[in-house]
Each structure stands twice: as structure tokens, then as C-alpha cells.
Amino acid sequence: MARVFKRSVSMLLAIIMVSGLFTVFPVSASAQSTEPSDSAVAALTEIYGGDENRARSDLEAMYASGLIDSDGKMVELDVCEDGESVDLSALATRINNGETVGEITVNGNASSAEQIVQLSQVHTALELASMLD
User: By the 8 A CB rule, do 17 and 11 touch?
Assistant: First the structure.
């Protein structure tokens, strides 16, 4: 009987401990900032020629998609053209110069030339913002 009681208590404690973990995860996730900093919005607004709504919208979308971490930095991007790794800013420059580019992927997902230019602009804005902060 004592053995059954000990096992029951052990199982109850294990369940309580595991259920306690589930309440910790949402709290820590909500503590992370998903709002773009004012300096990042200002830097991207400058790059976008004064369009603050577009700058804020693009930054919020990139936070939501996980391309910007909770510290406001661009995550590591694996940018490839026709399966070969390429530099984001170099590819964006080629696109802006009107060069034809191959099939582009970012972290394994197909991306358009416009998305590459946008990523490059946001990356530049985040770098500028980090220097200002």
C-alpha cells in the first residue's frame, strides 16, 4: 500500500511540475519585444523616402515572420541564387541595377527580387538604428 501511495504522490508531483512549465512558456514569449524601435522605423522611413507607414508595416511583418529577433536584429539569413549562397546586399544591388537574377531562396523559401530588395533595405535600416541606439 505504501508503495502505491509513493507512486501516486510521485506521479502527482510530476504532473504538477510539467503543468507549471506550460504556464512559464507563454509568459516568457510575451516578454519579448515584437515592436520595432523608433530608431529602426526612422531609419527605414528615410530609406523609403518618408513613407513611415510602409516602414512600420514592413518591420512588423518581419518581426511576425521571425526575420527579426526580439533584440531588433536581423536573424541569420541563408540567401541563395540558383542554389549558391550569395550576399544579401550584393544581390540587392544587382537587382537594383537591373541585372537578371536566377531562382532566389531565403532560408530555403522561394523569394522574389522585390523581397530581396526589401530585406536588404530593412537590414540596412536595422544596422543604422543599432548605431544610433
Answer: no
